Amino acid sequence: MKHLLLAIIFLLGLSNFTLYSQSNSKWIHFDWQGETIYGKHFDKVAMSIPLKVENMPYNFCGQFDLGATTTMLYENSFKPFASYYPVVMEKLDTSLAPYYLNGRKSFFLKGLNIQLDHSLFPNRNIALIPNYGDTYPVGSINSPSQKLVGTIAPDLFQNTYLVIDFKNNRLRTYTKLPKKYKKADYVDATIRKGRIKIPINIGDNTEFVLFDTGNCMGDLLLDKETILKFTDANEPSEKLLDGNTWGDKITIQTKRLLNPIFFNGKDMKITNAQFTDTDEDVQFNKEEKIIGLIGPLLFENKTIIIDYIHSKFGMLE
Q1: Could you count the other beta carbons within 10 Å of the beta carbon of residue 245?
Q2: What is the mean pLDDT of residues 8-27?
Q3: Segment 210-242, tens digit of pLDDT
Q4: What is the DSSP string of 54-85?
Q5: Which residue, 70, 187, 232, 297, shows the most beta carbons closer than 10 Å to its own?
Q6: How far apart are CA 122 and CA 55, in angstroms?
């Protein structure tokens, strides 16, 4: 799915749920990654989380992407490190049902213990995506710089409350929600394949959008068909970016919205929407019954609570 990679494609040019004790859940720090793309600088194009895999001593990180479905490692990036720890690659299990990402057939590393910052997520099945990711030079393997080797997806957080504290660049899970987060403004949401879709109001319409932390290029990302519903056909669009994803060219444009957007009665202050030119994005949005994706930058001074137990989405000022 092309949406989940929008934040990292420009930088480059199923697990079984194991309930862990509340004491093992700690605050997980995340960092914003910035980049200059085709002459335009973006301070926040992706969210990354410190990542440990088994007992490997390397300084890994993964992109935090709630638009993905399955936590994964990129073969090109990960294998040079794993070659020194063959016991990890021995966990690759081709007897499990494969995982497909944009047509790529992948298999799972079964029963991996991973750690996000200081929080342990034991016995997870992590997809290994073949022929994907940056290849790190042999000489850099032991360098202290952080290495992006994968994607952190919502499969790790199902059946919990996920709290994302954007003010303090941190997140954590709870099996019992603390009282201070119960007073947030909640809306009923829809969850499919772990992805959470929330209602917004545009004019007289209520529409659903996917909350996607992998979409940091703009506030609201539509497709070439849904953009027509909310903008003036006679008003030209402005090109934002050209890029490539999975070998295909993609163009992102921006256009002014005709009506303000409200979430749970609050004006989101979104004046423009971005949109892509691909048929795949049109098909994805139709299949998911959404108009597009809403990004995390809208909530950067707030706390978000995703209730994966009761399918609710909350916002706390």
Answers
A1: 19
A2: 44
A3: 999 988 878 999 999 999 999 999 999 998 877
A4: TT--S-EEEEE-TT-SS-EEEHHHHHHHHTT-
A5: 70
A6: 12
Is residue 7 over pLDDT 50? no
List beta partners, residue 41. 36
pTM for the whole structure: 0.89
Torsion of CA 235, 238, 243, 245, to 10 degrees: -30
Tell me the per-residue pLDDT of 60-88, one tens digit each, with 9 for 90 and over: 999 999 999 999 999 999 999 999 999 99
How crowded is residue 121: how many other Cβ atoms within 10 Å of its Cβ?
A: 23
**Is there a contact between 255 and 272 (Cβ–Cβ < 8 Å)?**
yes
Q: Which residues contact 29 (CB under 8 A, 6 or more apart)?
A: 49, 50, 117, 169, 170
Q: Which residue has the tokens 């070659």?
A: 83
96 pLDDT higher than 80: yes
Per-residue pLDDT, averaged over 292-312, amounts to 95
Beta bridge partners of 47: 32
Closest CA to 293 of 196, 187, 156: 196
Task: Give the number of other Cβ atoms within 10 Å of residue 207's Cβ.
Answer: 19
- Show the tokens assigned to 214: 């992998």
